[in-house]
Design a protein that fits this description.
This protein is an alpha+beta fold. It has one domain: Alpha-ketoglutarate-dependent dioxygenase AlkB-like (Jelly Rolls). The strands form two sheets. The protein has an eight-stranded antiparallel β-sheet with strand order 2-3-11-8-13-6-5-4. Strands 1-10-9-12-7 form a five-stranded mixed β-sheet. The chain contains three helices and 13 strands; from the N terminus they run E-E-E-H-E-E-H-E-E-E-E-E-E-H-E-E.
């Protein structure tokens, strides 16, 4: 069970085979920029509390969420998101048009192991995850043999890029922790398909 705590500023490949490519850049943006973006988004986003069905009962989602279009952007899109989107797009070379935000308030907030809904991302294009605030560990597991488990400490200012194929072969999640930890904001950049007129809430 390898544990990866990376300090180099260059991109490090965590996986690169027929099951997909996962790359981690620990210092994608400098500390001052990461702190400024975190401060702006934590206080400036209208964070939503959601509930969903799990095991035949409705439960609170253990984190707060937000969402913005970045291409085209609306007048309400925070400047930090626009700046981050430009940098991520330039680095990855992909025309990201959507960003999903999560606010993990403390170690009790989490996201269960999952893969992205394939119907909500353009086939063949990656997902880029920018982390701000406190460091949280992500666990990435293969769905089938040969089994592989990665534990990656996502530091402030880091960028994790997962290819489309990884959503077929891996799950990823942020587990709860009993360790004292501060708040974290994650920005997940995606290329979403053109909206379906029959589904007006598609981009929420």
């Amino acid at each position: 069970m390898p544990q990866l705590t990376l300090f180099d500023s260059s991109e490090t490949l965590l996986a690169d085979d027929e099951r997909g490519r996962i790359a981690y850049t620990p210092r994608f943006v400098d500390a001052a920029t990461a702190e400024a973006w975190f401060t702006e988004l934590r206080s400036g986003v209208m964070w939503r509390s959601e509930r969903r069905m799990m095991y035949d009962r409705e439960v609170d989602v253990p984190r707060l969420t937000g969402h913005f279009r970045v291409e085209p952007a609306s007048g309400s899109t925070p400047g930090a998101i626009l700046d981050a989107a430009r940098r991520v797009t330039d680095r990855v070379g992909v025309p990201f048009n959507s960003v999903g935000l999560n606010l993990y308030r403390d170690g009790r907030d989490s996201v269960a192991p999952h893969n992205d809904h394939l119907s909500e991302i353009v086939r063949g294009l990656p997902i880029a995850l920018l982390s701000l605030g406190a460091t949280r560990r992500m666990t990435i597991r293969t769905k089938a043999s040969p089994k592989r488990v990665l534990h990656v400490d996502l530091a402030a200012g880091s960028l994790l890029v997962m290819s489309y194929e990884t959503q077929l072969h891996y799950t990823h999640g942020i587990p709860k922790t009993r360790e004292p930890v501060g708040p974290r904001v994650s920005l997940a950049f995606r290329v979403r398909p053109a909206p379906d007129p029959a589904k007006p809430g598609f981009y929420r």
